[in-house]
Amino acid sequence: MAAPKKGRSASAQSRPGRSLALILIAIAALTGGMFVSGHPTPRLGIDLAGGTSITLTAKNEPGQPNAINKTNMDTAVDIMNRRVNGLGVSEAEVQTQGSDNIIVNIPKGTNSKQAREQVGTTAKLYFRPVLTTEVSGSDASASPSPSASSSSSDKATDKASSSSSPSSSTTPSATATSQGRAVTDALKADSTPSASSSASSSASSSASPSPSGSVDPATAKLEAEYTALDCTDKAVRAKAGDGAKPTDSTVACGKNSSGQWQKYILGPAEVSGTDIKKAGAVFDTQSAAGWKVTMEFTSSGSKKFASITGKLAQNQPPQNQFAIVLDGEVVSDPRVDQSLSGNAEISGSFSQTEAQDLANMLKYGALPLTFKESSVTTVTAALGGEQLHAGLIAGAIGLGLVIIYLVVYYRGLSLIAIASLMVSAMLTYVIMALLGPTIGFALNLPAVCGAIVAIGITADSFIVFFERIRDEIREGRSLRPAVERAWPRARRTILVSDFVSFLAAAVLFIVTVGKVQGFAFTLGLTTLLDVVVVFLFTKPLMTILARKKFFANGHSWSGLDPKRLGAKPPLRRTRRPSAPVDTKEA
């Protein structure tokens, strides 16, 4: 039975070249990927590269004087963090300042405009029935048909069916009086008990409009707002529907498929963004719609959606449409021909970035408060650059001291340790550079500190392995058997030590926020790389060098001199005494 065991041992010792080849190929592949990605350097955080600092101030909503409180502010910070940071390591900082301000720091290299939209957009989504609509302001004169305005060609669908077509409405050249009558008729139609009766009521009231004396003040106010609304004016458009509650009818603006601004009067919200369970951006390969946003409703939201679409399907245009309203602006106004349930989608002239941003905001939910952008400032990296310079000097001094210690104490073995440190540093740099465009990782000062601390963790693994080998040599074994016997014992110690370090880094990453996460992330990453380097580089390299005379014969500068280590005499197998031989018989 001894022969097979010896064969297996010899086979195991003959494979170090495979491990070395594997890790070298991995380094080459990662390095090639880094250059192909176009990001040969790690992305830096705001403290090292500068960036943009945005101050957002919470606004009081009508009828909600106590909405600005600690709970809502903390919720807003959490949602903004998830929107911008994604995995939490892109180093965009979101924190409160005072009772009603939120500071957002975005590192250089991030699309600041896109990030500003992500953090500042409230993302309040409502599905409202369209009561009436027409092309607005100066865009009305550019309308291709003077008798009818065209609405968006966006669609709302489920797996069963979908429908979308231009809606008819009042003429762009209608006077203020006719517009007011259209609003009044639409509101009366919307207030009728059933969808079927609303259509007939709308038709009858269109034929014989109600006298102005019977119009209640709220309707008269809405008529005036709709008549005066010019959606081509950005300032007017921004204030459209201000102060309207979800249960109120309101006015709104939105662009149609021709790129013209359309104005709407909308009924009370039937479905809200809180009824959305999931949202995602997908590319529609079956039609020319391009990128679209798909939404999956909750159980209650699906019922609401089926109910409102069932009612709208019985109405005449444009009252068989519903508007998807995001932060007061109509992003889509599909026509409904039958009751829909399950999933819905928002399609139109979306780019990939716009579709992903909208899906991201819907997925993470609406902000509990409305914010206005108080200030946007550019942050320089002067202070961070000085601190980085000082940190790199400290790291270089620490690394130099470690190398001096290894050379003096371990002599020839220090070459293995230094080579392993270089491989670990190379892997760390390349992976950090790749994580920038992949998950948004940004290197900040705490992350640099984590990388410096990792030097000690990596060196500790080498020391454990070397000391185990020395212990075996002290027991009288030659180098090659000593390496193979020392490895299992050293391996257990290294794995336990690295597991504790990785566990501490993981806990720190989970329970902290902001820059401290950068330290924890880097510490955890370098701890994992330490295991990879020790298993695939340090141990195979030691096995190969143990076959060389310089190390195998215990040269005084090899660090494995048996005399300097106080080794015992070589171990010998004990032999049984042979039986005495009778010389006379011989």
Description:
- Helix 13 (413-439) runs antiparallel to helix 14 and helix 14 packs antiparallel against helix 15.
- The chain is of the alpha+beta class and 586 residues long.
- It has helices at 2-13, 16-36, 46-49, 70-85, 112-120, 176-190, 195-207, 217-228, 234-239, 299-312, 352-364, 382-410, 413-439, 445-474, 479-511, 515-545, 549-552, 562-565, and strands at 51-59, 93-97, 101-107, 125-135, 156-157, 162-163, 250-255, 261-266, 271-272, 276-284, 290-297, 322-326, 329-332, 343-350, 370-379.
- Helix content is 50%, strand content 16%.
- The chain has a five-stranded mixed β-barrel with strand order 4-8-7-13-12.
Layout of secondary structure:
Blueprint lengths: L1 H12 L2 H21 L9 H4 L1 E9 L10 H16 L7 E5 L3 E7 L4 H9 L4 E11 L20 E2 L4 E2 L12 H15 L4 H13 L9 H12 L5 H6 L10 E6 L5 E6 L4 E2 L3 E9 L5 E8 L1 H14 L9 E5 L2 E4 L10 E8 L1 H13 L5 E10 L2 H29 L2 H27 L5 H30 L4 H33 L3 H31 L3 H4 L9 H4 L21
Parallel strand pairs: 7-13
Antiparallel strand pairs: 1-3, 1-15, 2-3, 4-8, 4-9, 4-12, 5-6, 7-8, 10-11, 11-14, 12-13
Helix pairs in contact: 2-13, 2-16, 4-5, 6-7, 6-8, 12-13, 12-14, 13-14, 13-16, 14-15, 14-16, 15-16
